[in-house]
Specification:
Chain lengths: 111, 116
């Protein structure tokens, strides 16, 4: 089983749409969770950390379900500039310096 | 604020040639440092990480090596490149949490390596 699994997409959505991405992880000891975005041929950049209670940052909402080992990202009112690949990232547990990256979900927002 | 630099931005090298990629971090002390590779159409693969000067942990056995000669300098090297070494090489840094767990990682702009 892959450690961090994401639907690769692509998700093609019109401007203004709401889109949701899901991610599952296999390591029940994971304690830190993140969403990164990666533009084509660029480095990944932190979008937001994901907290147990769920958290929101403007148009972006992240949710964590530890019991199901499931993370989600919701983007409301999509903009053209949201087009990118979204990477789900988890750490390897307490005392670990390692993060495991999913392969990403590609989003294209269409005019 | 912290910044991370990588160079060169792009590199084309023949098979069998040596490699040296450099990464430096500014604005923080004793960061954790990481080298990743992202092959075309694939996820990020952790190659090495370092929690201090001279301390290197290898995740993937291969013909690459890493060194940390100074607190904020991380170098990725190879004596002889293979075709399969082509990819996007990313350096990252993070703070160290007291628990020793991984904190948010911040990436440099990367080096795109093509081995011919």
């Amino acid at each position: 089983r892959k450690e961090v699994e994401q639907d690769p997409g692509p998700f093609n959505v019109p401007e203004g749409a709401t889109v949701a991405f899901n991610c599952t992880y296999s390591n029940s000891a994971s304690q830190s969770f993140f969403w990164y975005r990666q533009d084509c041929r660029k480095e990944p950049k932190l979008l937001m950390s994901v907290y147990s209670s769920g958290n929101e940052d403007g148009r972006f909402t992240a949710q964590l379900n530890r019991a199901s080992q499931y993370i989600s990202l919701l983007i409301r009112d999509s903009k053209l500039s949201d087009s990118a690949t979204y990477l789900c990232v988890v750490n390897s547990g307490a005392g670990s310096y390692q993060l495991t990256f999913g392969k990403g979900t590609k989003l294209s927002v269409i005019p | 604020s912290q910044t991370i630099h990588q160079w060169p931005a792009t590199l084309v090298q023949p098979v069998g040639s040596p490699l040296s990629l450099e990464c430096t971090v500014e604005g923080t002390s004793n960061p954790n440092l990481y080298w990743y590779r992202q092959a075309a159409g694939r996820g990020l693969q952790l190659l090495f990480y370092s929690v201090g000067i001279g301390q290197i942990s290898s995740e993937v056995p291969q013909n690459l090596s890493a060194s940390r000669p100074q607190d904020r300098q991380f170098i990725l090297s190879s004596k002889k490149l293979l075709l399969s070494d082509s990819g996007f090489y990313l350096c990252a840094w993070s703070f160290t949490l007291y628990s020793g767990s991984a904190d948010t990682q911040y990436f440099g702009p990367g080096t795109r390596l093509t081995v011919l």
